[in-house]
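**Folding the chain**
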Amino acid sequence: MDKYITTPITENVTKDLHAGDSVFISGTIYVARDAAHKRMIEALDRGEELPIDIKDATIYYMGPSPAREGQVIGSAGPTTASRMDKYAPRLMDLGGKAMIAKGKRSPQVIDAIVRNHGVYFAAIGGAGALISKCIKKSEVICYEDLGAEAIRRLEVENLPAIVVIDSEGNNLYETAILEYKKI
């Protein structure tokens, strides 16, 4: 079933999302990859504030390509999620609610999703040009020296994704295999 959701994604939103749901996300999301995640955790370790408001935030693991003339952003396909698995639980424990990427997640991340009533969405790898059309505004907000890995604030409209891991820990990557075996 298609669901249209708007950020911030709160527990009231995540409780109604189920593994396998197709969603269209609108609102503000943040882009951060490996280097930005590492810096955020290092900042926390030093007792500093995060450069973004993590409460109920959605983080898209993506490294955009440069925008062509007349475009807001270049190709905007997802990055493999497992590269952020060592950082994600801590950010979720601080209030992060949703992540968008591609690929499987570690048991520690799944535990953090359940513990914090969060959600993990998959965006379609290879569809970066299509996804970029959903991005209406893109702004680097910190760590500009990281180039494509800087943290960006995006305004998105109907960004397509699939709920892979819901707030109860149901995991589409596991249930889909079982369904396929029945066929």
In short: The chain has a mean pLDDT of 93. Helices lie at 11-14, 34-45, 88-93, 107-115, 128-132, 172-182. Residues 32 and 151 are 5 Å apart (CA to CA).
